[in-house]
Amino acid sequence: MMGKIYVIGSQKGGVGKTTSTLNLAYALRKQGKKVLAVDFDSQANLTACYGIENTGELENTIGHLMMAAIEDEKLPAMKKCIRTEDGVDFIPSSIYLSVADAKLRLEMGAEKILSEILDPLREKYDYILIDTCPSLGMLTINALAAADEVIIAVNPQLLAMMGLQDYLRTVTKIRRRINPKLKIAGILMTMCEARTNLCRTLTEQVTESFQGQIRIFDTRIPHTVKVGESIYYSMPVERYSPKASAGIAYRKFAEELISIES
């Protein structure tokens, strides 16, 4: 069985995309799955979450793979580019990815380059998770062209909700023009302050707007200070604080994702 590629996506920053990629990867690994996380953002936040401080000095990153593919050169050996932390394999990023991004805009058929890099890895992994940058440039298009499904992270605050419609339109366009197999896995509500009226109201609004069209995952990721602390210590929240509500939620989310597929 070939592994599935998921994009953890959103058009807004600050919705917990990178945190969700890190923690979902770890939770899936704990369920016995083989997982590869790909940092596809030149800000390299996911790479930093894995404890790599000087990302600018890295020589084997997703940016280097992309540039080699763009230039039709031999790709660097995958084993040089894939690192492992907490049992999860990951391909780091660095500011060098922005060089690849600039080149992509001038290339013919540039939408499929990430797909060409990741497709051969499907047989080694159950899940490949791509953390994307919060914009709709060529990098995001490449990620969506490579993916089977998109998990849309939504922070239930007004502005994040407004970006949701734009993001859905983009996914529809990519499906129509580039990647007909692309599906929306569902909407993941992150940073939920369940006690606040606003959060409850907006969660209901999302559910009403998309019920029957798009799955709203049952699992909601709570807003907790432990998430920020765990990132500071370069750890998934469940490893940092096993009883933290967010860690438990990500574990439930991994179980939910696996059960939907089976």
Would you mind describing this structure in some detail?
This protein is of the alpha/beta class. Helix content is 45%, strand content 18%. It has an 8-stranded mixed sheet with strand order 3-4-2-5-1-6-7-8, with helices on both faces. It starts with a strand and ends with a helix.
Find the count of extended strands (DSSP E, 2+ residues).
8
Mean pLDDT, rounded to whole units? Answer: 90
User: How many angstroms separate the termini?
Assistant: 12 Å
Shape: globular
Order of helices and strands: EHEHHHEEHHEHEHEHEHHH
Strand content: 15-25%
The value of Rg in angstroms is 17 Å
Structural class call reads: alpha/beta
How many strands, what sense, and barrel or not for the largest sheet?
8 strands, mixed
Major sheet strand order: 3-4-2-5-1-6-7-8
Q: How much helicity do the residues have? A: 40-55%
Instruction: List the uncertain runs.
Output: none
- Quickly count the helices: 12
Question: Short summary of the structure?
Answer:
The chain has 262 residues and is of the alpha/beta class. Helix content is 45%, strand content 18%.
Task: Summarize the helices and strands and which ones pair or pack.
Blueprint: E1 4-9, H1 17-30, E2 35-40, H2 45-49, H3 62-70, H4 78-81, E3 83-85, E4 88-91, H5 97-104, H6 113-118, E5 127-132, H7 138-146, E6 149-154, H8 158-177, E7 183-192, H9 197-210, E8 216-222, H10 225-232, H11 237-240, H12 245-261
Parallel strand pairs: 1-5, 1-6, 2-4, 2-5, 6-7, 7-8
Antiparallel strand pairs: 3-4
Helix pairs in contact: 1-12, 3-5
